[in-house]
């Protein structure tokens, strides 16, 4: 009986050590995850998806509203339609680029964690690796500044649709109060520069304008522009996080490369 008890005790000890080893391995792996880069990647993918998807649909809805109500002549909005079509193709390119760039930055974040050092003792930073890391820092800063411009540009259609919507609310309140001067309240889309000044009708007033605001195309385009603007803002925040992560990684690789020191950022 004694040998059997000793054997069982030894097996329990081995199992507990094995479980302890698995637990320590999991903790070690989780400790090497670049959480900042991971959060930035998720936020970047979500922001770009919202901006590109909602922006594409909102642009198509804007063209439909313009053709149906504000510009009856095709020649008046031909240039605007071509610009919208070009912007839709650019959106496809932006989505593809940021999908690849986000994966590359996430991989670079994993590569510069302590996990690499622990799994590959012979790992050392090289001049080529530091140059690649510096290139990511520079490119991320450029993209961050560019996306600040994109975010500012995406607020313009939100501002335009908000002005139209607020004018419709004024017309609705005047009609509720029994005021007969609603036909004098107008919106001239030509003042935004998207169609020429000789476009007809260009200006919509009164109850006709209220009917436009009540259409599903207007309401949906307005909401889509708001979501696209929010997506652009989320992408800017993600790029700011990427800036901090890539800058920190590059600084550690540059100044502590002789110590074979890696980062967990």
From TrEMBL:
PROSITE patterns assigned: MYELIN_PLP_1 (PS00575), MYELIN_PLP_2 (PS01004)
Membrane as UniProt keyword: yes
GO CC annotation: membrane raft; myelin sheath; plasma membrane
Entry GO MF terms: structural constituent of myelin sheath
Xref: InterPro entries: Myelin_PLP, Myelin_PLP_CS
Membrane topology: Multi-pass membrane protein
Highest rank taxon of the organism: Eukaryota
Keywords (A to Z) from UniProt: Membrane, Transmembrane, Transmembrane helix
Localization, UniProt: Membrane
GO biological process: axon development; central nervous system myelination; negative regulation of serotonin uptake
Transmembrane segments: 38-66, 86-111, 132-153, 222-245
SMART domains: PLP (SM00002)
Main location: membrane
Family to which the UniProt record says this protein belongs: Belongs to the myelin proteolipid protein family.
Protein name (record): Neuronal membrane glycoprotein M6-b isoform X5
Organism for this UniProt entry: Enhydra lutris kenyoni (northern sea otter)
Upper taxonomic lineage: Eukaryota, Metazoa, Chordata, Craniata, Vertebrata
């Amino acid at each position: 009986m004694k040998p059997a008890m000793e054997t069982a005790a030894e097996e329990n000890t081995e199992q507990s050590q094995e479980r302890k080893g698995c637990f320590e391995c999991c903790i070690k792996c989780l400790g090497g995850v670049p959480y900042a880069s991971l959060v930035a990647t998720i936020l970047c993918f979500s922001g770009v998806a919202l901006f590109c998807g909602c922006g594409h649909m909102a642009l198509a809805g804007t063209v439909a509203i313009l053709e149906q109500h504000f510009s009856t002549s095709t020649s008046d909005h031909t240039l605007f339609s071509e610009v919208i079509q070009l912007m839709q193709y650019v959106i496809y390119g932006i989505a593809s680029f940021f999908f690849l760039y986000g994966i590359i930055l996430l991989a670079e974040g994993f590569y510069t964690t302590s996990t690499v050092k622990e799994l590959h003792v012979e790992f050392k930073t090289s001049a080529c690796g530091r140059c690649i890391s510096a290139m990511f820092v520079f490119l991320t800063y450029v993209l961050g500044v560019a996306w600040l411009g994109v975010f500012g540009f995406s607020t313009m259609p939100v501002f335009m649709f908000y002005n139209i919507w607020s004018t419709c609310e004024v017309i609705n309140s005047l009609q509720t109060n029994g005021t007969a001067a609603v036909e004098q309240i107008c919106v001239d889309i030509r003042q935004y520069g998207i169609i020429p000044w000789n476009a007809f009708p260009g200006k919509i007033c009164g109850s006709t304008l209220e009917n436009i605001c009540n259409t599903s195309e207007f309401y949906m385009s307005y909401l889509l522009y708001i979501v696209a603007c929010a997506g652009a803002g989320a992408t800017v925040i993600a790029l700011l996080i990427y800036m901090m992560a890539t800058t920190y990684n590059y600084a550690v690789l540059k100044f502590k490369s002789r110590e074979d020191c890696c980062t967990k950022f």
